[in-house]
Amino acid sequence: MAEQASMRLKVLLPTEVLLDTAAVRLLAEAENGAFGLLPRHVDFVTSLTAGILAYEAPEGEEVNLAVNEGTLVKCGREVLVSTRAAVVGPDLESLDPVIREEFAVLDDHERRARSALKRLEAGTLRRFKELEERS
Does the reported pTM lie above 0.85? Predict the structure, then answer.
């Protein structure tokens, strides 16, 4: 039997490389719907939505990841996924709570951080305005 062509899949988080493996098929979700990739698929870039990214290893094993929004770049036989958070799970049922709980916590932290940043920006603008009025 001929060896099956594969892609190199890398899942990159802000602090680590979560996954660097071979894949013969990949399924993911973008804003305009789910899509699949094979090794000879045309090169492209897309934004991923929070959801499941599944790939098939050369041995036939299917692996599922919960991915929290990100970017997927396919160039040649390399597929790079950059995301804020991702979790590898044994099956789809175990990943559903992860998406709902862990990614919701990240979204809450992001909302708080954005709120704090808006307050800092508003304070800085007020101080600039005060300095401008004094001049």
Answer: no
